[in-house]
Amino acid sequence: MTRATLAKLLAFVLVLVTACDRPLDNLVGRGSSAPIAMTIEQIADTGQPGQFILSGTATLPDETPLTVSAVRRINPQPNDRSLDGESRYAILDRTSAMVREGRWQAQLSLWEISPEGYYQENWQLTNSKGSEPELANLAVDFWATLEPLDLAQSKLKDRSEVFDSTLNPLINFTPSGEPYLKVIEPKLVALPSARAVVPVSLPEQERTTWKERLMLENPDIRLTEQPPIPFQANDNLPLPAENLLR
């Protein structure tokens, strides 16, 4: 065996060993990518009444829009047959978040201020049936979804595994059969009970005379008489004829 033949044989063995050490997904279709995943990592209280900051991850292309929502389930009344005993769901707040470098973040405000000045959730502000606080579920479900239209317009539409519910637990379908991605994270959030601190607006300052303003700024000053005019009678000199208004 010549030296050139031996060198070629060694090179072939080296390539074969290197290929065996590579991950399988690099050998089967170099264009394949990681499986689709979405998470809600944290639901943090901001310190402001009813406000939360949500953050999470998503193996989605940059600038993919997500819809982030807070939903509370309202149980039916015991004797309510209007909805056949089905629960209702109140969307407390909803906003958008953009995926950037595999992460996303959004802020939600779950409470509003009633005309009486109390914090309340939006379903409590209505007078519809089933709005009693004792019927509300103790937990709020926080959702992160890739809506059907956004999913259809994304770069994921050509990946068949995204739309296979047996392979992707995130996949859901609307009643009309449109696919979308959804992840839910529940959190115990008590119903609001405190009164909102509404700042008192100052009324506009009334128009006053210079004398009244002077007394307001200097309360020790008491002007009982009009101050004398600092002019003498002979100070009233006649105007020249050319200065008279004609």
CA-based gyration radius: 37 Å
For the secondary structure, the number of strands is 10
The secondary-structure class comes to: alpha+beta
Order of helices and strands: HHEEEEEEEEHEEH
Which descriptor suits the 3D outline?
extended
Low-confidence runs of at least 5 consecutive residues = 6-32
- What characterizes the major β-sheet? 5 strands, antiparallel
Strand order of the largest sheet: 4-3-8-10-9
- In round numbers, the mean pLDDT is 74
Q: Report helical residue fraction.
A: 10-25%
Give the oligomeric state of the chains in this entry, treating copies of one chain as homo and distinct chains as hetero: single chain
Structure description:
It is a single chain. 15% of the residues lie in helices and 29% in strands. The longest helix is centred in the N-terminal third of the chain and has 19 residues, at 3-21. The protein is an alpha+beta fold and 246 residues long.
Q: Which properties best describe this structure?
A:
4 helices; 246 residues; 10 strands; 29% strand
Map the helices and strands:
Blueprint: H1 3-21, H2 24-27, E1 38-45, E2 51-58, E3 65-74, E4 88-98, E5 103-109, E6 112-113, E7 119-120, E8 136-146, H3 148-153, E9 171-173, E10 179-188, H4 210-217
Antiparallel strand pairs: 1-2, 2-5, 3-4, 3-8, 6-7, 8-10, 9-10
Summarize the structure.
With 246 residues, the protein is of the alpha+beta class.
